[in-house]
Write a structure and sequence with these properties.
263 residues; Spore Coat Polysaccharide Biosynthesis Protein SpsA, Chain A; transferase activity; Glyco_trans_2-like; Nucleotide-diphossugar_trans; Glycosyltransferase_2
C-alpha cells in the first residue's frame, strides 16, 4: 500500500499565483508514495479556486468569508489528517517558495530524523526581500529562539513539513497567523524540528497581507498565550518512533545489500 503526501496551500486572492505553485509540485517522489494537493481557500473573491482546480488540485476547501491565515493553516492540517496523509507539507500560494524542493524539505521526516521541518530562507538563498521584511523576520525568529532556548534560522517560513503525529497534535490558537505559535506548540510538545535550506524569491504578483501594527497586535498576544498554556510533552513517544525508524532503515539497508550481492 502506498504512503501519502498531502501538499496543502492556504490561499486568499491568489488567482495569478496559485496555478504556478501547483504546477511546480512534484507528483512523483518515490514508487511507494502518492501525492495529492489540497487548497484551503480563505474566502477569496477572485478566481483562486478555479485556477487551483485548473492546475490540478484534487481537493479544495472554501471558507464563506476571510477568516485569517491561522484558520486556513489549521484547516489544512486537519484536512491532511482526514485525507490519510502520512506526511503533510504546507506551502504558501504566493509563488515565493520553491515547490520543486518539497522532496528535500520532507526528507528528514521520511528518514525518521524529524517530525517537523521548515524550509529555511536564511539557511538557503533569498532574492528580492526588502530590508524591513528581513528585519521583521529576524526579530520574530530571535524571539522564538529565546523562548525555546534553541537556534532557529527562519521562524517565519511559509514552507513546512509535518509527520502524521505532528499533524494530529499541532494546535494554532489564533486565526490571524500561525508562524510563531505553531513552532512554539510543536517544539514544546517534544516534536523534533529541523530546518532545510531552500531557494526563495519574492512574489511577482499581488502583495502580502501583513500590516505592521495589525500583525504586532495579533501575534505578540498570541505568543504570550501560547507560552502560558500547558502542553503535554511527547518525547517518550518520539524516542520510540525514532528507534523504530532507525531499525526500519537498517533493515532496508540490509535488504538492499543482499539484493546487490545476488546481482
Amino acid at each position: 500500500m502506498k504512503r501519502k503526501l498531502v501538499v496543502f496551500l492556504p490561499a486568499y486572492n491568489e488567482e495569478r499565483n496559485i496555478g504556478g505553485v501547483i504546477a511546480r509540485i512534484p507528483r512523483e517522489i518515490g514508487m511507494d508514495w502518492e501525492v495529492e494537493v489540497l487548497v484551503v481557500d480563505d474566502g477569496s473573491t477572485d478566481g483562486t479556486v478555479e485556477e487551483a482546480r485548473k492546475a490540478g488540485a484534487e481537493h479544495v476547501v472554501s471558507f464563506e468569508r476571510n477568516r485569517g491565515l491561522g484558520a486556513a493553516v489549521r484547516e489544512g492540517l486537519a484536512g491532511c489528517v482526514r485525507l490519510g496523509a502520512d506526511i503533510g507539507l504546507m506551502i504558501d500560494a504566493d509563488n515565493e517558495y520553491p515547490a520543486e524542493e518539497i522532496p528535500e524539505v520532507i526528507a528528514p521526516i521520511r528518514s525518521g530524523r524529524a517530525d517537523y521541518t521548515m524550509g529555511s530562507r536564511f539557511k538557503g538563498t533569498i532574492q528580492g526581500m526588502k530590508l524591513h521584511r528581513r528585519i521583521g523576520n529576524v526579530c520574530f525568529t530571535l524571539l522564538q529562539a529565546l523562548l525555546l532556548r534553541r537556534m532557529i534560522w527562519d521562524g517565519q517560513s511559509g514552507m513546512r513539513g509535518f509527520s502524521r503525529e505532528a499533524l494530529e497534535s499541532a494546535e494554532i490558537i489564533h486565526d490571524y497567523n500561525y508562524a510563531q505559535v505553531l513552532t512554539l506548540n510543536l517544539v514544546r510538545k517534544g516534536f523534533v524540528m529541523e530546518e532545510v535550506p531552500i531557494t526563495y524569491q519574492v512574489r511577482v504578483y499581488g502583495q502580502s497581507f501583513i500590516k505592521f501594527r495589525k500583525y504586532m497586535g495579533h501575534v505578540l498576544p498570541a505568543i504570550w498565550r501560547e507560552m502560558r498554556r500547558p502542553v503535554g510533552n511527547q518525547s517518550r513517544v518520539r524516542k520510540r518512533k525514532l528507534a523504530a525508524g532507525v531499525q526500519l532503515a537498517a533493515e532496508g539497508a540490509q535488504v538492499r545489500g543482499r539484493a546487490a550481492k545476488r546481482e
